[in-house]
């Protein structure tokens, strides 16, 4: 479950200046794999304000935290492995490497 305390380091700019966009990239995940979810939350929070964002933007925040922590994805993998074990099926073979000498 996501908590509001995890957002204490995220803040909205009071005054937008040319430097504001540079500062946004210092402490966030906009360029990472969860950048889209982060921006969705920030767009919602900038429309409503950080106090109302607790309630108005909880879906965007939940999506962002799911992207970071992958809790639901790991739970699905755990359930699939348990079902495979229950059916006494052999483990899935790992995928072949695209570039064998590099390992990926």
From TrEMBL:
Residues 83-104 are annotated as: Disordered. GO terms for cellular component: mitochondrial inner membrane; mitochondrial intermembrane space. Residues 95-104 have a biased composition (Basic and acidic residues). Gene3D superfamilies: 1.10.287.2900. It holds the Pfam family Ndufs5. Its main location: mitochondrion. CDD domains: NDUFS5-like. Disulfide bonds join 34-67, 44-57. InterPro entries: NADH_UbQ_OxRdtase_FeS-su5. It is a peripheral membrane protein. It is found in: Mitochondrion inner membrane; Mitochondrion intermembrane space. Coiled coil: none annotated. Keywords: Disulfide bond, Electron transport, Membrane, Mitochondrion, Mitochondrion inner membrane, Respiratory chain, Transport. Belongs to the complex I NDUFS5 subunit family. Accessory subunit of the mitochondrial membrane respiratory chain NADH dehydrogenase (Complex I), that is believed not to be involved in catalysis. Complex I functions in the transfer of electrons from NADH to the respiratory chain. The immediate electron acceptor for the enzyme is believed to be ubiquinone. This is Uncharacterized protein LOC106064376 isoform X1. It comes from Biomphalaria glabrata. The lineage of its organism: Eukaryota, Metazoa, Spiralia, Lophotrochozoa, Mollusca.
């Amino acid at each position: 479950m996501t908590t509001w305390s995890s957002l204490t380091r995220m803040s909205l700019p009071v005054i937008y200046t040319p430097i504001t966009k540079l500062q946004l990239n210092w402490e966030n995940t906009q360029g990472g794999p969860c950048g889209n979810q982060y921006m969705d939350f920030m767009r919602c929070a900038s429309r409503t304000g950080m106090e109302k964002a607790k309630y108005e933007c909880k879906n965007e925040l939940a999506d962002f935290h799911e992207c970071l922590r992958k809790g639901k994805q790991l739970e699905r993998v755990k359930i699939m492995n348990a079902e495979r074990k229950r059916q006494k099926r052999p483990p899935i073979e790992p995928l072949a490497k695209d570039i064998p000498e590099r390992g990926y």
